[in-house]
Write a structure and sequence with these properties.
The radius of gyration is 17 Å and the shape is globular. The protein is α+β, with helices and mostly antiparallel strands. Helix content is 57%, strand content 8%. It has a 4-stranded mixed sheet with strand order 2-1-3-4, covered by helices on one side. It folds into 2 domains: 72 residues, Glutaredoxin (3-Layer(aba) Sandwich); 145 residues, Glutathione S-transferase Yfyf (Class Pi), Chain A, domain 2, CATH 1.20.1050. The termini are far apart.
Length: 231
């Protein structure tokens, strides 16, 4: 019997984070795929926010991907996905927060803004965030290692990666690519792309380009998109 049940959607980068965490932990899990355009009535009883991912583990139901991932790291202790040192662990949480509050909203805003002027503003914001991640993040913390904290994979890597797999959306619909200055981020992206867990659930660029058409023309009715419009 599976130790964890995860309610997920292949198109969702937040759920992608948690599926990767489960795979990296080697946790046996049952996957329940949710059609986000036609969610079953019973789903709200499991997910109070109406979003994926949600996990069930024993008597516990946990939602919100960053919280789920820390829960999984605490419950399934090997391999550890947060640094042991308290200061480094705090830095990891700072960068996870940066992903959630800075990088992800900028990524979404560039996708959903149709007006040329707003697209340019969003592109500039995302460009600035990526340079900040390059210079103040991975370049300072990784040493010579391939991952955010060096040789060891962490929840920081898993928090950012799903949006990089979706970068073809921005390239296709908004002509936005990873800045050339982001050398270490590009190396990290390649290292992440080659991980067994990533390869196991990887989708093609064409899959994302098709799935995110409604984001590009701002007609999506997804909860996250609605929240981003109001932010």
């Amino acid at each position: 019997m599976a130790e964890v049940e995860i309610y997920s959607a292949s198109v969702c980068p937040f759920a992608h984070r948690t599926r990767l965490t489960l795979l990296e932990k080697g946790v046996d899990f049952k996957l329940t795929e949710i059609d986000l355009k036609n969610k079953p009535d019973w789903f709200i009883s499991i997910s109070p926010y109406g979003k994926v991912p949600v996990i069930k583990h024993g008597d516990n139901t946990v939602w919100e991907s960053a919280i789920i991932n820390e829960y999984l790291d605490e419950v399934f202790t090997e391999p550890p996905l947060l640094p042991k040192d308290a200061g480094e662990r705090a830095l990891a949480r700072i960068w996870i927060d940066f992903a959630n509050t800075k990088f992800v909203p900028a990524f979404y805003n560039l996708r959903i803004n149709e007006e040329r002027e707003k697209q340019q503003e969003s592109a500039q914001t995302l460009h600035s965030h990526l340079l900040f991640m390059e210079k103040e993040g991975i370049a300072k913390l990784s040493g010579n290692g391939p991952y955010w904290f060096g040789e060891s994979l962490s929840l920081v890597d898993l928090s950012f990666y799903p949006w990089f797999e979706r970068f073809p959306i921005l390239e296709h619909y908004r002509s936005f690519a990873l800045p050339s200055e982001c050398v270490r981020l590009r190396q990290w992206w390649e290292a992440m792309s080659n991980r067994e867990s990533v390869q196991a659930i990887k989708n093609t660029p064409d899959f994302y380009i098709e799935q995110y058409l409604q984001y590009a023309n701002n007609t999506t009715t997804g909860i996250t998109a609605q929240e981003m419009r109001l932010a």
